[in-house]
Amino acid sequence: MQDFLWAASLTLVRHGESEGNLADAAAQEAHADMLDLDIRDPDVDLSDVGVGQAEALGRWLKTLREDDRPEVGLISPYQRARRTAEVAVEAAGAVDAIRLKGDERLRERELGVLDGLTSTGIRKRLPEEVDRRDRLGKFYYRPPVGESWADVGLRVRSVVATLQSGYPGRRVLIVSHQAVVMVFRYVLEELTEQDLLDIDRDTQLANCSITRYTAKAGDEMMTLQSYNSVAHLAEDSEEITEEADAATPAN
Length: 251
Fold this sequence. Notes:
This protein is of the alpha/beta class and 251 residues long. It has helices at 19-29, 48-63, 79-91, 119-125, 127-136, 149-166, 178-188, 193-202, 231-235; strands at residues 9-14, 72-75, 99-102, 171-176, 210-214, 223-229. The protein has a six-stranded mixed beta sheet with strand order 3-2-4-1-5-6. Helix 6 crosses helix 7 (178-188).
């Protein structure tokens, strides 16, 4: 009998709508330079809509067969991701069944000097960064004291190695952020830079959306079963939101 090389299932969830998403949308609409937030990004909580989305996620988890439901959750330590997971697990009635573990490798992409700025503010205050981003491209552009998508890829590859060594044959839930979920696709499916950018251009990852992979014993790669699914939100009449996690110079 062949051993598992991967987790049996991997359920990737972007956090529910956050107060930061709302602040970003308001700042963009007002053409403001900065978001109106007085707390640091790791402490930004869910909006009321985000809580409802997390509850809908939990109700979806509850519909899964026991042998298909996640057994363990690896969670970004940022408040909006942690609360999404906690609300969902409670709504699923699975507080004791799904063990949640914080993992800083799943944190949001760090924006460095761009943190808190809108695309308008970046163009106005840091035009040289707009030029540099245009030259390097979205995947490799690293804001000063921040991270590129490629940097996030190093973190994700480390998490994937942990999944292979520590969770073979297990069912794993990951609650994280937009860029992190996207880069999981890049790593797990061995995509090219252009493949990933095409997906990012064509589809905005929704809050509390589900991206799911499965593997059988002996499989050399995980198989994508669903991407950016929001059926659980629609079924529960929850608002579907797609605000970006953070502004970039090209917005």
